[in-house]
Amino acid sequence: MAMATTITEGAALYRLLAWLSPAYPVGAYTYSHGLETAVEDGRVTDRADLVAYVSTVLRAGAGRVDGALLAAVWRAAEAGEDAALDEAALLAAAWRGTAETALETMAQGTAFTAVTQSAWPDARFAAFAARHPRALAHPVAFGAAAGFQGIPLRSALQGWLAAFAANLVSAGVRLVPLGQTDGQIATAALHPVVEAAAEAALAADLDTIGTAAPMLDLLSMRHETQYTRLFRS
Fold first, then answer.
1. Is Chaperone one of the keywords UniProt gives this record (predicted)?
2. CA 104 → CA 49, 123, 141, distances in Å?
């Protein structure tokens, strides 16, 4: 069921864990979502700053629209509604504030699509990907695959948002720098934020959804020309 609160056992659980694993080759570790510039500017200097930054991304930035897109795509895939799938894919490609955040989501989506088609083939997902060659944002590709392959919506959504947050925490641990224990404390502190973001995504309407975090976009734009950098965004 779309609103299941616990994940299905067996194959669906195994798929979800595999797709969210850091070992799944989507290249998430190469992106910081503007965090590198925030650290360079002295805006993020400790664990509390990092939690605040990632919370903003989830509540008012890309996490807000990406969660809503993932949910919409999952529902369209589960219902077999190709037109709704295609519309969400086009919206996801357009809803990017900067070239760097566009690269971040589209490159990861392309990588996710390629490896998932090879390792977990599904004819419906392959047909969707063929209609949008190398043009599926990561939450759209993930949501469609989850919907087609029977992973419950709430589990897929919470898992994807948690992985997104964890990747930014990992970037912060390397950039600030912080210790690994601080990184895990930050991840634990973000749990209620991830839960709230998932609930907001489940209730979102793509006709009215939007973001309100212009500083994140400004940091991302400045990262594009930052003199030295470790990350691609």
1. yes
2. 22, 26, 14
**Tokens at residue 227, please?**
């003199």
Give alpha helix (H) positions in the chain: 11-20, 35-40, 47-60, 62-79, 82-94, 99-119, 123-131, 138-148, 153-175, 180-189, 191-203, 214-223
Interatomic CA distance for residues 111 and 213, integer angstroms: 27
SS3 (DSSP) at 41 = coil
The model's pLDDT over 40-76, given as tens digits with 9 standing for 90+, comes to 999 999 999 999 999 999 999 999 999 999 999 999 9
Token representation of residue 89: 């894919």
Q: How far is CA 230 from the centre of its chain?
A: 20
CB within 8 Å of 154: residues ≥ 6 apart? 3, 4, 5, 198, 202
Amino acid at 9: E
pLDDT in tens, 115-143: 999 999 999 999 999 999 999 999 999 99
Nearest Cα to 143, choosing from 4, 19, 11, 6?
19
Report the alpha-carbon angle 193-194-196, nearest 5: 65
Task: Assign 170 to helix, strand or coil.
Answer: helix
